[in-house]
Specification:
Elements lengths: L6 H8 L8 H12 L5 E2 L5 H13 L6 E2 L8 H8 L7 H12 L4 H13 L3 H15 L3 H12 L9
Helix pairs in contact: 2-3, 3-7, 6-7
Length: 161
Amino acid sequence: MTVAIPRSVIDTVLSRAFDDKPAEEILRWGLDTFAPRIALSASFGSPEGMVLLDMMHNIDPAKTRVFTIDTGRLHQETYDLMDRVVPDGEALAAALLEAERYAPIAPLALAATKRMLAEGQSLDAVFAAETREQPLLTLTADYCEGRAAMRDKRTPVFRGA
């Protein structure tokens, strides 16, 4: 399959015009320039993918398309979340119900995610927070417990340590 990209688009990208632009502006340009031939590949497990999906949806819900490459290694909860469609006006109630399900699991990872999302005023801030938080989480007993539970095919018991 061959896709013809207009020379003006190539020139815009090569000019480095977006080097200092916020993520929202770059996404808006991408959606305006390439829709409907543009989509986000998201793993539904990474904060930055969810931030990008949210930004795209806030810019133009009609142009927002998302896909995931299913490697067969996602947790059932991830598939369940991807399959849920919530009617307009019911997102907060659905999110609160989801939060209740996640509350007892991996408290340190959830706390780090909440910190990242709170800081995430820009995509760069989210990436910086993830770079800072992720290595710290690998040093915790909860991380070791999660790996052991996956290896042993059992439900992990997190202690917030």
